[in-house]
Amino acid sequence: MTALRVAMIGYGFMGAAHSVGWRQAPRVFDLPADVEMTVVVGRNADAVAEAAAHWGWAESATDWREVIARDDIDIVDIVTPGDSHAEIAIAALEAGKHVLCEKPLANTVEEAERMLQAAARAAEHGSKAMVGFTYRRVPAVTLLRDLIAEGVVGTVQQVRAAYRQDWLVDPEAPLAWRLQKEHAGSGALGDIGAHIIDMTQFVTGQSVDAVSGTVETIVKRRPLLGSGSGLSGTAAEGYGDVTVDDAAIFTGRLSGGALVSFEATRFATGRKNSLTIEVSGDRGALAFDLEDLNSLQFYDRTADAERQGFTKILVTEAQHPYISAWWPAGHMLGYEHGFVHQVVDLVQAIHDGADPHPTFAEGLSVQRVLAAVEESAANDSAWTRIAAP
Ligand code: SOE
């Protein structure tokens, strides 16, 4: 069996989640290729060596360019902040590697366009490129997409999508890279709003064609970051400006005409990682809640009136997406399983010579919606059309 040798660039929170994916996928699923966790790359030699030992990477390194130039690397997995996605992904594609890139694809539309062009050129030589919108691979979300495509809700008339976290309610939470435009591109909008834009487009099979929105930075200055990097850093002396949004609320129009309400916020006190989506149609409705991720809620408008009401579909049957490789019915999955399924689908696509989704084109489409929300917010929430590709 061929071996796919992986280099992961970055090793923070997402690096840990991706490592679990690379480690578990070949153990739980019957993959058509071997996966080797060859090298993890980071700037701090000691810290990245520790991460390698902890997560099971064979080696660590400090120079991603040297790693990408190596012949013994097939896949480059990018889990760095958004400001380095374009440079690393384009270099990796030009070196003939397959690329998995964390979401959002880039910090700007222009970067995402260049990444898509590089992916298109590399595809001619067999390289695959995929964006890490991992929640597509929560079994209940995949099922949600399948059921809508089968027509169980009929014509989609409205969608409500929200991603709510609260890790910034504390005004002393430090100025991590996610709060700096030059590193993250935008705030809640790009970090978690990107997920609900992608999920809406994925489950409905429609594109967001126009938006009207508002963004807000609620706490404008924060303590500088001492140690740590992501959601759990500690503060140092001094304060700096927050240069991204804390919350974004916007309305969207889908290509099929349906209206969507979106909310992405890091100020939803008490909501730790709440992603909800509800799709309403003329025959029924389907709803998903990440905090109850082994299920869907289904309302069947065509059922007899006395039997109508939202009912729970427990998405743990062997017939449900991805489940047969795991546990018997009723034995739950969690946050990390999406990262395992992402590896499964990427490896299968590379083996089959197919394009793994989400493609860079889909990543670019999300980037265009993010940019349109910012443009609308800067223009008193004027309706803003998303330019056709
Ligand atoms: C932080 O908001 C974060 O880690 C996101 O960056 C991830 O994409 C999401 O899965 C969990 O929250």
TrEMBL record:
- MF terms (GO), sorted A to Z: glucose-6-phosphate 3-dehydrogenase activity; nucleotide binding
Key words, A-Z:
NAD, Oxidoreductase
SUPFAM superfamilies xrefs: Glyceraldehyde-3-phosphate dehydrogenase-like, C-terminal domain (SSF55347), NAD(P)-binding Rossmann-fold domains (SSF51735)
Q: What is its EC number?
A: 1.1.1.361
Determine if rRNA processing is one of this entry's keywords. no
Which of the seven top EC classes does this enzyme belong to?
Answer: oxidoreductase
Q: Which InterPro entries match?
A: Gfo/Idh/MocA-like_OxRdtase_N (IPR000683), Gfo/Idh/MocA_oxidrdct_glycsds (IPR050463), GFO_IDH_MocA-like_dom (IPR055170), NAD(P)-bd_dom_sf (IPR036291)
Question: What name goes with this protein?
Answer: Glucose-6-phosphate 3-dehydrogenase
**Which organism is this protein's natural source?**
Microbacterium hydrocarbonoxydans
Q: What is the lineage of its organism?
A: Bacteria, Bacillati, Actinomycetota, Actinomycetes, Micrococcales
